[in-house]
Amino acid sequence: MEDDNYYKVYRILKRIPKGKVTTYGAIAKKLGINPRYVGYILSKNNHPDEYPCYKVVRSNGSIGGYTFDGKNNAKTSLRKKKKLISEGIKLSKSKVSSKSIIRRF
Questions:
Q1: What pTM value is reported for the model?
Q2: CA distances from residue 90 to 17, 21, 46, 104 in whole angstroms, order as listed
Q3: Could you tell me how far CA 88 lies from the centroid of its own chain?
Q4: How far apart are the C-alpha atoms of 7 and 84, rounded to whole Å?
Q5: Where are the domains of the chain?
Q6: Contact 22, 29 (CB under 8 A)
Q7: pLDDT of 55-105, one tens digit each?
Q8: What is the pLDDT of residues 11-43, one digit of tens each?
């Protein structure tokens, strides 16, 4: 069952500009919820082209997992990595540069 936090998280996703990412923690802090709950909400996103959940990374810049079509595995993580690169986000050892991370909304 979805609550208001789903819609609030999805609205934040739409505010992330091209070439930038944010963190689970930054979204959680803005909404006053647990970062793991943010991850759970993102894992339920059925419209990743409309709500770019792939633009959310861990606080240390590592790209983390990516659920796509109900699966979260090495193949979906590679998909996330390719989507980030296609947006012009530079990765080094599967980590995003801190300059690309929005930490406050």
A1: 0.94
A2: 15, 11, 26, 20
A3: 15
A4: 23
A5: 4-102
A6: no
A7: 999 999 999 999 998 899 999 999 999 999 999 999 999 899 999 999 998
A8: 999 999 999 999 999 999 999 999 999 999 999
- Asked if 20 and 100 touch (Cβ cutoff 8 Å), the reply is yes
- Which tokens in the block code for residue 31? 């909404």
Enter the tokens of residue 87: 């947006």
Alpha helices, DSSP H, located in the chain? 4-14, 24-31, 35-43, 74-86
Tell me how far CA of residue 94 lies from CA of 78, 99, 100, in angstroms: 10, 15, 13
**Could you confirm whether domain 4-102 is CATH 1.10.645.10?**
no
User: Is there a catalytic annotation at residue 53?
Assistant: yes
Which residue among the candidates 9, 13, 16, 53 is catalytic per the annotation? 53
